[in-house]
Design goal:
Layout lengths: L22 E13 L4 E13 L3 E5 L6 H8 L7 E6 L4 H6 L3 E4 L11 H11 L11 H7 L15 H12 L6 E5 L7 H18 L2 E5 L3 H7 L2 E6 L4 E7 L14 H15 L2
Length: 274
């Protein structure tokens, strides 16, 4: 897949309308290698991609294809061995120091001795003088993710889905420009996962931030994304970038449409050849 093919397209469905020069993430020929005592492992090879500001990009591919590694490069948690990457036109380190990046993992990792509100407040407290406060307060962020009335509940009093909502609100507390999500709903039951998919799209549309979302679910990737980045393994690389032309106001019922079925069938075919 060439760098041109991986560039954000003109609007289709609810695809981003951002000008071609305004990239949230832009990388060229990215390579990441890990070394063990026995061998070198190429996690990413020749990855070139542009992600538009405000875009919702889902990442799909087999285990070991470098999806999570790519998120960690964007977040400045891993340094690439070669290639170039820019986050909002700057090095990932600059974006991290400016707190432009929020990260949500599969494990909510909430502090058990702090209630929901206190967990959301944490990023602002540990970065006093450096944190850029969100347009919404921690209490308003909990309401945004559907947890109004649960501010005083402790993690053990919340369901798995509710804990993940707190985690999302916490990631938004310092007003990031980009939200990186690494299989955040992977451990949840199907009904809860569907509900959070709807909530996440609503939050994304309200805030207008860029989202990079890793998943192993074909249906989740197709439902959430404006484009789906399909990655192949050994080494991790771009297999295809598939535009999603479903309506902007899609609902879970949209998954029963012929267009959605055709899209997921295409993604499955690509996944089987990765």
């Amino acid at each position: 897949m060439s760098a041109v093919a991986a560039t954000a397209p003109r609007p289709a469905g609810d695809a981003p309308a951002t000008a071609a020069a305004d990239w949230a993430v832009s990388c060229r020929n990215l390579q990441v290698r890990f070394f063990t005592e026995r061998r070198a492992i190429t996690a990413l090879q020749g990855l070139s991609l542009d992600v538009a500001v405000g875009e919702f990009l889902t990442l799909l591919g087999p285990s070991g294809c470098g999806k999570s590694t790519f998120l960690r490069v964007v977040a400045d948690l891993i340094q690439p061995n070669s290639g170039e990457i820019r986050v909002f036109g700057a090095q990932p380190e600059a974006a991290r120091l400016q707190r432009d990046i929020g990260f949500v993992f599969q494990d909510p990792a909430l502090l058990p001795w702090r209630n929901a509100l206190q967990n959301v407040e944490l990023p602002l407290q540990v970065a006093v003088g450096r944190a850029r406060r969100a347009k919404a307060t921690p209490r308003e962020l909990l309401e945004l993710v559907g947890l109004k009335g649960s501010e005083q509940a402790y993690p053990h009093e919340l369901s798995g889905g509710m804990r993940q909502r707190v985690s999302i609100a916490r990631a938004l507390a310092s007003d990031p420009k980009i939200l990186l999500m690494d299989e955040p709903f992977g451990a949840l039951d199907e009904i809860t996962r569907d509900r959070l998919n709807e909530e996440l799209r609503r939050v994304w549309r309200e805030l207008g931030i860029t989202v990079l979302f890793v998943t192993h679910s074909i249906h989740e990737a197709a439902y959430l994304g404006q484009r789906v980045l399909m990655m192949a393994a050994n080494p991790g690389r771009v297999r295809a970038v598939v535009p999603v032309t479903l309506p902007a106001g899609r609902t879970l019922a949209s998954r029963e449409s012929s267009e959605f079925v055709a899209l997921t069938s295409e993604l499955r075919r690509l996944l089987e050849t990765c």
